[in-house]
TrEMBL record:
The protein's Enzyme Commission number: 5.3.1.24
Protein name per the record: N-(5'-phosphoribosyl)anthranilate isomerase
Protein family per UniProt: Belongs to the TrpF family.
Name of the gene this protein is made from: trpF
GO molecular function: phosphoribosylanthranilate isomerase activity
UniProt organism field: Thalassococcus arenae
HAMAP family (alphabetical): PRAI (MF_00135)
Amino acid sequence: MPDVRVKICGLTKPDDIEAAASAGAAYGGFVFFAKSPRHLEFAAARSLALYAPPGLAKVALVVDADDGFLDALTATVPLDMLQLHGHETPERVAEIKARFRLPVMKAVGIATADDLPEIGRYAQVADQILIDAKPAPEADLPGGNGLAFDWRLVAGKRWAKPWMLAGGLTPDTVAEAVALTGARQVDVSSGVESAPGVKDAGKIAAFVAAAQAAKAVPRI
Ligand SMILES: O=C(O)c1ccccc1NCC(=O)[C@H](O)[C@H](O)COP(=O)(O)O
């Protein structure tokens, strides 16, 4: 079975790109959300994207972005994927995919079993689904909160599109999360930081190694 693919989200410095790429991550995420400690201006993101080696797919994380914002973003920063982390409807996901001609990953927040049908709804239009913890209503950030959800909710489930498990994963928990859910892709931000917005190269290496060593339980 191929290695679990890892996305390291919230890269802000060239050192972060090096840490993610040398650890063997498949994706690097750039956050465009002003309130986030990981927020990047377009010029900084462009420099990081140009610095990234070919094996690291460059993912831009945006929240309820309008076409003007996305026009400017995609004209400035060379990207491989857009991650939609707001309240974008399935119709808006389809519109963004058609207009910007980039693969689109839609984040879906999960707290209880009642949230699961959303995954299937978005799987009809998005290229990938990021299955994340649903933030608390009073949270400042719609993601990147280091909050986990009950992984048993998605264990053994199948959807029409590739999906990535996210939410509060750490180097110590990712193997168990993969074994329990069967995830073939995982995403992390807070769990590989030494402080909010500050990535830790040692934690990135430990996370990728633990994810890739993990054995997903095959499900029928
Ligand atoms: O990281 C942020 O600051 C952020 C801001 C706005 C929307 C989403 C954001 N992050 C999402 C992620 O980093 C991940 O895709 C995911 O939520 C996992 O984060 P974490 O629980 O911190 O590992």
